Amino acid sequence: MLFAKAVKTLFTLAVLSLPCVAYAKPVTILYVPMDNRPVNTSYVEQTMVAAGCKVIMPPEKLIPSNISEGKPDSLWDWLVTKAPKADAAVISTDSLIYGGLVASRTHFLPEATLTKRVNRLNELERNLPIDLYVFSTIMRTPRASKGNVEPPYYAEYGPKIFAYSEWIDKGDQHRLNFAEQVEKTMARQEIPKEYLKDWLDRRQKNYDVNVQLLNLAKRNKFHFFAIGKDDNAPLSNTHMEAKHLNRLGFAFSKKDFSIIDGVDQLGLLLMTRAYNETNNKSPKIYPLYSEGVGQGTLPQYSDSRFQDSVPQQIIAAGAQVAPTLQAADLVLAINTPADGIVQDATAKSNKYYASLPNKRYIAKLMQIAAKGAKISLADVSYSNGGDNGFMHNFALAGGLEKLVAYNAWNTGDNAIGFAISQGIMAESTPPKELKKLIKQRLIDDWFYQSNARNKITQHFDKITREDLKYNLGAVNKQTAIEAKQTCLTLANKYPFTKNSQFTLTYPWDRLFEVNIEIKK
Asked: If DSSP states are collapsed to H, E and C, what string results for 392-414?
């Protein structure tokens, strides 16, 4: 008996001495994405599969793309009759109701069709007796937009529509004085009536759909319901509509319903929540900001400061905010601009130079990493890409090797959502697969978005072909070759990414999105 106990003790110690990868219960998740962009499909699937999950997705022909809307009716049939059993389902209502995210901004669907599609969501609980994690979006209010992701008139009148939306929101708050009422009237007159009517009518339909979805959530048809705020501002229609929807959902617990800043991260965020809840997990995450304005930073394309949006996303992922650094299972390192002013990653200020606050923050991260902290880095000092100066110095200090996740893509809220999710899933991901995921994000978010995209953009501007940014067409393959070479050159400067092998393609035929597939 004593010998058996001794053997058991030795075996236990041997197991504990192995590299710590906490393999959880295998989870099968059915996933209906908003569209087929990598951030909504392949990157999400790869993250979850690497951690041992099985992901069931619709046939590609049913998923919205850059050249075709999704097929809501066929997608519905697949969902209720073809999908194998799963532990949970994460579902984009934009795909099931409009035909995708872009379609939600451009469709001409009558109210009767929208209501019919909302009502059949009523059947989900009966047809799929599993936990349903459902997300929708509030139609965005961009300052400007090109590239066929808004109605055609928005390319010309978008800035004026946005300015008018600021007056609408301010008026809704009863803050307009007489002079501003006059300015609002004048602003409206600068927009063709048919265009403004089309835009406002579609917004109303979107709002009504979200109200109907909220009513379903109140009847416990969904395990968790999230509404994402797409591109918006502190004064905008999106901000105003979110405020009203929040009032309608005031009785909900944050564990049942949330309005979340950002949209494109919602698929992975809810997949992570499904994973956590299936495994009865609730990891503690501590947000650690860089020097300066920090949590008070207002990111571009958002109406919420990080102090409000970050805890919101942590809770939405099925995690909780750690009270102290020492109590955290995961440190969410958030690199923000010291002055709180966020610019695009292609800005001239994004040089390979680290400020003194950058260097002090790097030293702090290295110090806590040396003590065993697991760090997921959300590099949101710039929008749409990494901070060259900070990341260059961080990489040279050996920081990349200390990370469990890195994100700097698109909006600050998008990057933080992915950083939370990939940081959580890292616990169950083997080291080899984890390194591939981090490389993928470094090459996409830092090397490509902040450098290769900037270089190509400058070239297109120089030859006065701005249109190519949104429709690469005949130059797609050559541009991809040049972009890959820039990324390879940068990758070979740092030990962590040196000799990386990967493919780079433009799945939506525009500069803004690339698909990076890591081979080595």
From this structure: HHHHHCCCHHHEEEEECCCCHHH
In 3D space, the residue among 410, 509, 515, 513 whose CA is nearest the CA of residue 468 turns out to be 509
% pLDDT > 70, the chain = 95
For strands 515-518 and 502-505, give the pairing: antiparallel
> What pLDDT sits at residue 4?
42
Q: Is the pLDDT of residue 23 over 70?
A: no
C-alpha separations of 217 from 132, 208, 223, 251, 347 in Å:
10, 14, 8, 11, 42
Distances (CA, A) of 443 to 153, 420, 460: 35, 19, 22
> Can you tell me whether residue 328 is helix, strand or coil?
coil
**Token couple for 481:** 């070759």
CB atoms within 10 A of CB 75: 21
| Mean pLDDT within 14-36 | 70
Element (H, E) at 88: strand 88-92
What's the CA gap between 415 and 383, in Å, rounded? 9
User: How far is the C-alpha of 63 from the C-alpha of 419, rounded, in Å?
Assistant: 25
- 362, with CB counted inside 10 A (0-12, 13-18, 19+), is buried
- pLDDT tens figures, 198-216: 999 999 999 999 999 999 9
In contact, 426 and 434? CB cutoff 8 Å: yes
How far apart CA 27 and CA 514 sit, in angstroms, is: 29
Do 281 and 24 contact (CB within 8 A), yes or no? yes
Cα 171 vs. chain centroid, distance in angstroms?
31
User: CA 422, CA 368: separation in Å to the nearest integer?
Assistant: 19
Question: What's the rounded Cα separation, in Å, for the pair 357 and 390?
Answer: 10
> 498 with 518: CB under 8 angstroms?
no
Band (7; pLDDT cuts 50, 70, 90): very low
Strands (E), 324-470: 330-335, 343-344, 375-379, 382-383, 403-407
pLDDT, averaged across the chain: 93
Tokens of 105: 């901004």
Residue 496 three-state SS: coil
| Rg for the chain, CA atoms, rounded | 23
pLDDT mean over 18-23: 48
- Listed as own residue / partner, the contacts of 428-432 with beta carbons closer than 8 Å and 24 or more positions apart are 428/21, 428/22, 428/23, 428/24, 428/51, 428/52, 429/21, 429/50, 429/51, 430/21, 430/50, 431/19, 431/21
For residues 520 and 498, what is the distance between their CA atoms, to the nearest angstrom? Answer: 10
Q: Alpha-carbon distance 9 to 242, whole Å?
A: 56
With pLDDT > 90 as the criterion, what percentage of the chain qualifies? 89
